[in-house]
Amino acid sequence: MSTRISFWLAWFAWVLYLVITLLTELLTLKNASAELLSDSFNALVLLVFITVGAFIASRRPENPIGWIICIGTLIWALSFLALEYGIYGLITAPGSLPGGALVSLFGAVARGIGWYLIMTFLLLLFPNGHLPSSRWRPLAWLIAGLLAAYMITLLLDPNPFINVDTRLAPVRNPLGIAGASDLFDQFNSLILLVLLATVVACIASVIVRFRRARGDERQQLKWLAYGTLLSLLIVVAIVVSMFANVETGPLSSLLFYLPVLSITISASIAILRYRLYTIDILINRTLVYGALTALLALIYFGLVFILQSLVRALGGQFSQTPLVIVGSTLVIAALFQPLRRRIQQVIDRRFYRRKYDATKTVQAFSATLRSEVDLSQLREHLITVVQETMQPTQVSLWLRPPEHGGNEHTPWRATPPVSSEGR
């Protein structure tokens, strides 16, 4: 496929998504859905998906990841349209649209397919569009087989709509096998469990790639790992909120999409190689400010609890005084910079040892400059600093003596141990 055709095909998919979304929103309005705000937010999130997919597909048409994102997003969007179509034709205005039950069935089947396609094959094929090795081919076939089995069970389930959209709960599947609802529910649960295991296996494939990768590919995998870590943290937050019975309201849709969204955006940055090497800085800042935020939050709530307890003990009716909040806030403000510097040092020493050692070496050399007066000693120190921080294959130093007008190559030269990374 030529680059020009790929470009137009990718952006045609983008335009097609807009058409599908417009039709979906119109049907949602006609159905007077209470989920209009949530559905509109879903459309905006999926717009980000299709934009990322079209951009990758048009810039890197040989890489199937962009096309997978486009196809997965279109399937996802079509499922919303099909369900709203079915609700209008079967519930809102019965008989007004043909094939309402069959179209709803398509929506129920396609609902999770788009999400799963993006989550699995993006991880499995990242970043070059190929499997890590031929050993991973059975996993790809297993994913395809599980998707087929999942679709077949939903097609034959007598009531596949109840877990998709409660408005379609009274509708019966025209292709369903009567009396087999419990059997299909158990079978679907088993398939979903195995599908979840395949997602974990796809994450393992990224780890295998990372261990073998070098150069740009390693940086690309760092971007994906960063997005995956964020998605896992979001999933943990979702699970905690569910067990704590926290009412998320409109945020529930955001929490559902954010895991896939973070992986998709980080993967697009990596594939397009935009600011590829800023990931090290981003990871560093995330570690620093993540730890800092957690520590300051712990100190803040601890201070509020302790001070309120003291105030309550001294004069009960003043336990909610604003002075407690103000005092705790002032303490947090005073601790911010010292704690940030300390956490930065700990993280650099633990995870960025080379950077930490280089910083210490430069600091030591700066101290030497203030006290050293022997030029020969300074030259030796300077060469040592360059060797330890930059690790070149060879160091040479040129100086301009005061008594000569031209440059002179000094004999101060050293060849440090050759590093596999430094040149």
Written overview of the protein:
By secondary structure, the protein is mainly alpha-helical. 73% of the residues lie in helices and 3% in strands. The chain has 13 helices and two strands. It has helices at residues 3-30, 36-59, 64-92, 100-110, 113-125, 137-156, 181-212, 215-243, 251-272, 279-315, 322-351, 353-371, 375-390; strands at residues 395-399, 408-414. Strand 1 (395-399) and strand 2 form a beta hairpin. The two termini are 40 Å apart. 25% of the residues are buried.
Secondary structure category: mainly alpha
How many beta-strand segments? 2
Low-confidence stretches at least 5 residues in length (pLDDT < 50)? 406-423
Order of helices and strands: HHHHHHHHHHHHHEE
Largest sheet: 2 strands, antiparallel
Within the largest sheet, what's the order of strands?
1-2
Tertiary shape? extended
The fold-level CATH name of the largest domain is: Rhopdopsin 7-helix transmembrane proteins
Structural domain count: 2
CATH uppermost class of the largest domain:
Mainly Alpha
Please state the CA-atom Rg, rounded to the nearest Å.
30 Å
Helix fraction by DSSP (H/I, runs of at least 4)? over 70%
Q: Overall mean pLDDT score?
A: 74
CATH architecture of the largest domain: Up-down Bundle
SS element count, helices: 13
End-to-end gap: 40 Å
Strand content: under 5%
